[in-house]
Amino acid sequence: MLETFDAPLAPLTTFRLGGPAVRLVTAASDAEVIDVVRAADAAGTPLLVVGGGSNLVIGDKGFEGTALRVATRGFELVGTTLELAAGEVWTDAVARTVEAGLAGIECLAGIPGSAGATPIQNVGAYGQEVSSVITEVVAYDRRAGETVTLTNEECAFAYRHSRFKADPERYVVLRVRFVLEDGGGLSAPVKYAETARALGVGPGDRVPLGAARETVLKLRAGKGMVLDPEDHDTWSAGSFFTNPILTDADFAVFHARVKERLGEDAEPPAYPAGPGHTKTSAAWLIDKAGFTKGYGSGPARISTKHTLALTNRGAATTEDLLALAREVVAGVREAFGITLVNEPVMVGVEL
Q1: Could you tell me the CA-to-CA distances from 239 to 175, 242, 291 in Å, in that order?
Q2: 69, 142, 160, 301: the active-site residue
Q3: How far apart are the C-alpha atoms of 14 and 343, rounded to whole Å?
Q4: Residue 52 to residue 329: CA distance in whole angstroms
Q5: Which residue out of 32, 129, 136, 343 is catalytically annotated?
Q6: Residues 156, 150: Cα–Cα separation, whole Å
Q7: Is there a contact between 314 and 299 (Cβ–Cβ < 8 Å)?
């Protein structure tokens, strides 16, 4: 276990933003993680759990408490059952499952961050979500003071949401268990239209696992969504806003507003999102509200590759980023009557 004080947190985040923590502890085992959490809770010390730092917006003043960096390792594959330690690098784990010929998370390649974060956000992309393959999550329950195992159903997964996100002060994820599919080296059925087009197949078709992974990596890289220290478009948290899910009534009002603003031929993206609900595209809303790729004149700007990513061009502060985010939220609300919701976790700040 490594302990430092007045420790910079910005280097631990993909935004490269935020002030220092009073104390930073790096834990390499589940036991060390639990010890740090228990000690902080017993002392009443604020605790910030950091994995890959790809979903954090930390305030410029930093964190007045203990930051716990989860650096546990563990990749155990038995048949089609996979167990990952929370600190495992997610995109590396995906690559290893593809090499093993197992399907289920191949379209989640290139997503930065750690395995332990995946159930919290119910990470998803290109037609796959971890909720479809997670069987159990092992976590430390801070309220009960014990390690618990939660089934998929108990995780209460929803779009970019879970029991862990709903009650962020309660659980610290230690291990995640998955069940994958042996499809004879083929991917799960391709669900996402953009992926299918890039692969030259139809929705529902299966392709070689390696081809699915490589195609997703290329698509993500084209949008600045694969980490590259030399590319400031990747100094981000990926998608900064979630795609809005509207009731049928709200969608009808929104649809009419789109026609009024953009013309009778304009049609907003619309995807089924359960009975009585429709999901639309945050990226489309941002673009049509006038915030195009590369928007901004300061050190924080919209990515030149994707309107859904807000980026640090190298000299930004967290306040610069938040000012841009607030401008986008206000602009979309004024244009379409929809209030965008941030996807990254805010630490010491809010929109």
Answers
A1: 25, 7, 15
A2: 160
A3: 14
A4: 26
A5: 343
A6: 10
A7: yes
- Token readout for 284 is 């489309």
The active-site residue, picked from 177, 239, 301, 303, is 239
187 part of the active site: no
Is residue 280 packed enough to be buried (19+ CB in 10 Å), middle (13-18) or exposed (0-12)? buried
Q: How many CB atoms lie within 10 A of CB 189?
A: 16
Instruction: List the pLDDT tens digit at each of the 351 positions of the chain.
Output: 999 999 999 999 999 999 999 999 999 999 999 999 999 999 999 999 999 999 999 999 999 999 999 999 999 999 999 999 999 999 999 999 999 999 999 999 999 999 999 999 999 999 999 999 999 999 999 999 999 999 999 999 999 999 999 999 999 999 999 999 999 999 999 999 999 999 999 999 999 999 999 999 999 999 999 999 999 999 999 999 999 999 999 999 999 999 999 999 999 999 999 999 999 999 999 999 999 999 999 999 999 999 999 999 999 999 999 999 999 999 999 999 999 999 999 999 999
Specify whether 38 is catalytic: no
Kindly give the pairing relationship between strand 20-27 and strand 63-70. Answer: parallel
Q: Rounded to an integer, what distance in angstroms lies between the CA atom of residue 165 and that of residue 162?
A: 5
User: Any idea which residue has 């998955």 for tokens?
Assistant: 178
**Paired tokens of 26:** 């790096």
Is residue 239 part of the annotated active site? The answer reads: yes
Buried b (16+ CB within 10 A) or exposed e, 126-138: bbbbbbebbebbb
CA of residue 137 relative to chain centroid, distance: 17
Which residues on neighbouring strands pair with residue 272, listed in sequence order?
278
pTM (2 d.p.): 0.93
